[in-house]
Design a protein that fits this description.
By secondary structure, the chain is of the alpha/beta class. Strands 1-4-5-3-2 form a 5-stranded mixed beta sheet. It starts with a helix and ends with a helix.
Length: 151
Amino acid sequence: MLSRLLPERNIHFTSSTLTWREAITQVAAPLLEAGDITPEYIRAMLDSVEAGGTYIDLGHGIALAHARPEHGVVRTGIAMLRLAEPAALLDQPEHAVDLYFCFAAADADAHMRAMASLARILSDADTRQALRDAASAVEVVELITEFEESE
């Protein structure tokens, strides 16, 4: 499931030092460019975090930025951004994140299936580390595909 929703074009790496706002905006950019989300979706994600939404911090330096479908989801999609330097949510060091995902689900069913797939991958410590060690989008896609095939 995840390998279909997270194509190479949605996986990016940056060596720039970003704020959490910039990281969320950049991780969402491929979905916006593809027409999967509207600009309002990005604003809704930022507003959610600004309102105390460190709940998107999944631990292990990983955040899953998302908002409600009615805030601008056109099609279900996922994007990933790997930062060289963590960008702390709400500028709180205890919420330092270097692996941002943007998740846009068009409906509850897509939400549940995609979340389950992502959770399985991110709950595996070796896979989490491999995602951090990957140097290209191709490597990330291969890693996810191999993980899904081994299940």
